[in-house]
Structure formats: structure tokens, C-alpha cells
């Protein structure tokens, strides 16, 4: 618990400092704790410290944790690539979906939201690209397709369009990519004023995201430590972070393309 508390304090201090440096009120920037691969006990511990928004990138893991933590005051967010055949189960948890990147998924989630009797809150994921001439390989709609996708989501009775979400390119300065995202978000807001949220920034680049206007940063490694992953698995929704997180266990691997290790229970 002590390590998690220190990490949470440090991350919140970074967010506050980034907001003030950008001339923003720190209260306008929320924190989403990305708890994927970590046990429900860690989520419960952070919730007890006042953190109530948690993100997962696998539907089954989210469902399992939601069941184990039923009754705990928290809000689930889904940040992975969503298969349409799993949408209904996800929607029943009330999760916010950050990865809507195609009209077929808009249709599926709209149907699930209307069936559940409450709109599904969604972010449209934008592909910010990678090196010049290359795709980001992290999912997301092409920027030119986003306005039409926003129109479709806004018109769907079973959805509530929250805004845009993106991951900065893995290499190089994230600021230019976040600036492009901010400009696109402004264009979407012009047509859909309710879509005023911007989900961007992670452990390694949250300051740049806040400077560009992010209202929600998605942080995992700096809170929980480096994630244990099967050999060769690549996490599309986390950057390769070079910095060691505060309080990370020395036996845990660093980086998000790491080999498997077993998390040490706190």
C-alpha cells in the first residue's frame, strides 16, 4: 500500500505541475489509472486512496475485476481494441469506451447502449501516426475520417460522445502529435460542443499532453510499476517508457515489451 500511495501522490503532483505550467486549473485534468495485468487488490487499494477511474485493455479482465470489486466506488474505462462480439458484455458494466475507431463499432455500441437503457460514453480513437510515412500501428481512425465518425457517434441515441483519445507516436517528441490532436479536437467540438474531453498522455508523456489540453491522462507504469507481459507481447496502448517508475519493484521488468515476470504482492 505504501508504494501505491507514494506513486499516486507523485503522479498527481506531476499532473498539477503540468497544468499550472500550461496556465490551467489542475482540477480540469483527471487521472485514469491503467490497471491492466495488475490484481484487483491493487485497484481496491488505490480506490481506498481516492482514485476511482480505472482502465483495462482486455474485456475479460475488466469483467473479472468488476465482479470481484462489486460495491467498490469506482468507474471502469476500456482502452483496448474492442471486438464487436464483446461489446454488449462490456456495456453492461457501465464502462467508458476509449477506442471507437470505425462506424461498425459505433453501430454495435449504439445497439448495446439502447438495449442497456443508458447511453455508452465513448471516445473516438485517433491514429496520430508514427515515423514519417508510417502508421502508428496502435489502432485509431485516420484524422480525416474523424469528423464523419464524430457525426455518427453524436447522432446515435445509445451513445454519448465524450471526445477524442490518442496515443502519441512511440519515438520522438510527442508535442507535435498532441498539437495535431488538439487541433482536431477543436474541430470536433465546433460541431459537437458536448465532446469536450480529451484522453491523452501516459506515464512518459503526460506533461506534453496536458500542455496540449488533455482533460484525462491514462497512467499505468508510474502508478503500479512495469507490467509483466508474456514474451513477445506488445501493448499497443502504452508507450515504451524509458524512465523507472517511482516505487517500482526491482524484480519487475521495465518497458512494455518486456518478458514475463510474476508480480510481487504488496
TrEMBL record:
Name of this protein:
Pyridoxal phosphate homeostasis protein
Q: Which HAMAP family match?
A: PLP_homeostasis
Pfam families attached to this UniProt entry = Ala_racemase_N (PF01168)
Function summary: Pyridoxal 5'-phosphate (PLP)-binding protein, which is involved in PLP homeostasis.
State the species of origin.
Blastococcus saxobsidens
In terms of PANTHER family, this protein maps to:
PROLINE SYNTHETASE CO-TRANSCRIBED BACTERIAL HOMOLOG PROTEIN, PYRIDOXAL PHOSPHATE HOMEOSTASIS PROTEIN
What broad taxonomic lineage does this protein's source fall under? Bacteria, Bacillati, Actinomycetota, Actinomycetes, Geodermatophilales
Q: Where is the Alanine racemase N-terminal domain?
A: 7-228
Cite the entry's keywords alphabetically: Pyridoxal phosphate
Amino acid at each position: 500500500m505504501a508504494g501505491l500511495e507514494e506513486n499516486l501522490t507523485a503522479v498527481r503532483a506531476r499532473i498539477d505541475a503540468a497544468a499550472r505550467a500550461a496556465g490551467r486549473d489542475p482540477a480540469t485534468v483527471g487521472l485514469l489509472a491503467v490497471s491492466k495485468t495488475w490484481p484487483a487488490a491493487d485497484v481496491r487499494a488505490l480506490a481506498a486512496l481516492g482514485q476511482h477511474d480505472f482502465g483495462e485493455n482486455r474485456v475479460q479482465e475488466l469483467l473479472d475485476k468488476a465482479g470481484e470489486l462489486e460495491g467498490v466506488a469506482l468507474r471502469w474505462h476500456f482502452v483496448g481494441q474492442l471486438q464487436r462480439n464483446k461489446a454488449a458484455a462490456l456495456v453492461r458494466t457501465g464502462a467508458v469506451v476509449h477506442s471507437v475507431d470505425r462506424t461498425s463499432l459505433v453501430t454495435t455500441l449504439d445497439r448495446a447502449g439502447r438495449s442497456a437503457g443508458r447511453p455508452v460514453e465513448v471516445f473516438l480513437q485517433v491514429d496520430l501516426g508514427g515515423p514519417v510515412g508510417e502508421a502508428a500501428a496502435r489502432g485509431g481512425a485516420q484524422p480525416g475520417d474523424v469528423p464523419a465518425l464524430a457525426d455518427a457517434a453524436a447522432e446515435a441515441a445509445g451513445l454519448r460522445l465524450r471526445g477524442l483519445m490518442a496515443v502519441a507516436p512511440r519515438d520522438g517528441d510527442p508535442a507535435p502529435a498532441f498539437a495535431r490532436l488538439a487541433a482536431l479536437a477543436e474541430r470536433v467540438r465546433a460541431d459537437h460542443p458536448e465532446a469536450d474531453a480529451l484522453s491523452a498522455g501516459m506515464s512518459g508523456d503526460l506533461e506534453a499532453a496536458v500542455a496540449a489540453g488533455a482533460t484525462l491522462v491514462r497512467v499505468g507504469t508510474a502508478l503500479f510499476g512495469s507490467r509483466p507481459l508474456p514474451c513477445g507481447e506488445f501493448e499497443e496502448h502504452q508507450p515504451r517508457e524509458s524512465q523507472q517508475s517511482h516505487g517500482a519493484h526491482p524484480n519487475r521488468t521495465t518497458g512494455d515489451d518486456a518478458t514475463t515476470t510474476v508480480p510481487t504482492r504488496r
